[in-house]
Each structure stands twice: as C-alpha cells, then as structure tokens.
TrEMBL record:
It comes from the Bacteria. Pfam families: RibD_C. Gene3D superfamilies: Dihydrofolate Reductase, subunit A. The lineage of its organism: Bacteria, Pseudomonadati, Pseudomonadota, Alphaproteobacteria, Rhodobacterales. It comes from Pseudosulfitobacter pseudonitzschiae. Residues 2-188 form the Bacterial bifunctional deaminase-reductase C-terminal domain. This is Riboflavin biosynthesis protein RibD.
Length: 195
C-alpha cells in the first residue's frame, strides 16, 4: 500500500503560515534559494519515491503547477530543480466538489470526499503520494487520519502566531522516523503514526 506523505515548512514554534508579511522560510519557493546542497539533494531523493501529488484546490488555482512548470523551464540544467520537472510529469489529484473538471495537464479532479479518494489512491499500484496544500487542507487530512508520514521542514524562526495544522486534531502519538539538521538552519523531522 502506498503512503500519503505530508510535507510542510514550519516555524520552530509550530506555525505553517505567518500572520503578516514575514520572510521566515529559509527558502520560500522563489529564486533566492538558501537551502544548502545536502538539503537540496535529500529533497530530490525523497521526491523520486513520489509518483502522485495530492493538491488542494486552492493551491492549484493559485498557480502551484504553473510556478513549478516555469521553474523547470528556467532551470533545466540545475540538478536541484529535477523535482520541478517531476511535479509536471507525475499524476496530480485535486479533491474538490467545487471544480467540475481539470484545467491542468496530468491533473484529475475527484470528489471532495477525502477519505474515499485518498483510500482509493493508496491502494493503486505505484510510489508514494505527496501532499501539498495549506493549513486547512493539511488539517482535514490529519483529522481524517489519512497521513502516513509527516515531513516537517523546521525553519529557524519563531512566528508567535499564524496558521497551524494540528489545531483541530485529536490527541495522538507519533514515532520518529528520522531527523536531520542542515547547515542552512533547516531541520527535517519525519514522523509516522505510533503503533
């Protein structure tokens, strides 16, 4: 069975989005990439295990796919941006009851019933499923118990307020799958459900 892997950039104090305009991420997906070489390599290595991406409706409508498509075209020789081409190449799924059909290449719109759609994806043949979306989307997946692995990219900043992903979750325990600190200040912590 495939795993659903939630990747989130997070502050030291547990926020995934800032109240206000704070430059808190070591790399906020723009051209100013301050991740170190080891983190870039590890990120791409992880992305090789992914062959499906689950995207929130909001994220895809706000330009996630065109952003990474443009990055793949701008940096075709940069080995770090191999993941950008992979985003374009793999299957994408957008669970939504608001969208009737997809306007994006290799992207299917399915019903907004997260449990049913994620359950169907997990039993398909293939690699793991990456999740990209905002705090609300991540919270809904967590509350439904659908996430098999959490990958938190902890940035060296405290925000003091903002969006969190566990505000609506019941008590649960996790087991540490791995933790690695990088020279740029980011620590990647990987967790799975305990038991």
């Amino acid at each position: 069975m495939r795993k659903l892997v939630l990747q989130m950039q997070m502050s030291v104090d547990g926020f995934v989005g800032a109240d206000g305009d704070h430059d808190w991420q070591v790399w906020g997906w723009g051209d100013d990439n301050r991740w170190d070489k080891a983190l870039k390599q590890d990120f791409n290595a992880h992305f090789q295990s992914i062959d499906t991406i689950l995207l929130s409706r909001k994220m895809v409508e706000e330009g996630y796919l065109s952003h990474w498509g443009n990055a793949a075209q701008r940096y075709p020789q940069d080995p770090f941006f191999a993941f950008a081409q992979r985003i374009i190449d793999v299957q994408k799924v957008v669970p939504s009851d608001r969208l009737e059909k997809s306007r994006w290449e290799r992207t299917a719109v399915r019903s907004g019933d997260l449990s049913r759609e994620v359950g169907a994806l997990k039993v398909e043949e293939g690699g793991n499923i990456a999740v990209f979306g905002g705090a609300g989307f991540a919270s809904a997946l967590i509350a439904a118990g659908l996430v098999d692995e959490f990958q938190f990219y902890i940035n060296p900043a405290a925000l003091g307020g903002g969006s969190r992903i566990f505000d609506h979750a019941d008590f649960r325990k996790f087991r540490l799958l791995g933790s690695k600190a990088y020279e740029c200040g980011v620590v990647v912590n990987r967790y799975g459900p305990a038991g």
